[in-house]
Amino acid sequence: MAGFLGSGKTTVLLELARRVAEASLTLAIVENEIGEVGVDGGIVRERGLPVRELFGGCVCCTLQTGLVDTLRALAADPAPDWVLVEPTGLAAPADITTTVRELMPDVDEIRALTLVDAERWETLAHIVEPLITAQIEAADVIAITKVDLVSDDALAQVTAAVRLVNTSAPIVPVAATAGAGVQGIFESLIA
């Protein structure tokens, strides 16, 4: 699950986890934190969800081996039905999926979810455009978050801009704090 810092990754992750559990599927969560102290992992753990944390770098570059080792360890237990990986907001999902495909060819399916912050779209598109574009291009499913905080016109503009970058991924509008739209993400990911 990719998305720039503050796009709502942890909130969406928690809502997705709830839907996975409601579908009677097992789940493991891998949290990637740049620093030495996990913030998001603690939030996830408070909800009673199993989480493994990777610290001190990004799973798309410096922690590739750590990610693969973690995924292999998860597969050695009774393998979960789903593994949700929440990388840092600076992650390149294409690099993550390439690493997993190359080093773990037995993994059945990898789906990249990218979150796009509707409220900060215009600012982020200018400031970190190459990163945002790469995250959108690599997505199998795109969730436009914080749609409850923007006008219908602004949402239409964000959706059109995202569609120019990725012409095939389903785009799901989401207001995750209210749980709205997360079922659409879940359904798109399992399709």
Note down, in words, how this protein is organized:
The protein is α/β, with parallel strands linked by helices and 191 residues long. It has one domain: P-loop containing nucleotide triphosphate hydrolases (Rossmann fold, 3-Layer(aba) Sandwich). It has 8 helices and 7 strands. A 4-stranded parallel sheet has the order 1-5-6-7, with helices on both faces. Strands 3-2-4 form a 3-stranded parallel sheet, sandwiched between helices. Strand 6, helix 7 and strand 7 form a beta-alpha-beta unit. The longest helix has 14 residues. The protein is globular. About 6% of the residues have low confidence.
The CATH topology name reads Rossmann fold
- Number of separate structural domains: 1
**Coarse morphology:** globular
CATH homologous superfamily assignment: P-loop containing nucleotide triphosphate hydrolases
The total count of strands amounts to 7
Keywords:
single chain, 191 residues, alpha/beta, 17% strand
Summarize the structure.
44% of the residues lie in helices and 17% in strands. The protein is α/β, with parallel strands linked by helices. The strands form 2 sheets. It has a 4-stranded parallel beta sheet with strand order 1-5-6-7, sandwiched between helices. Strands 3-2-4 form a 3-stranded parallel beta sheet, sandwiched between helices.
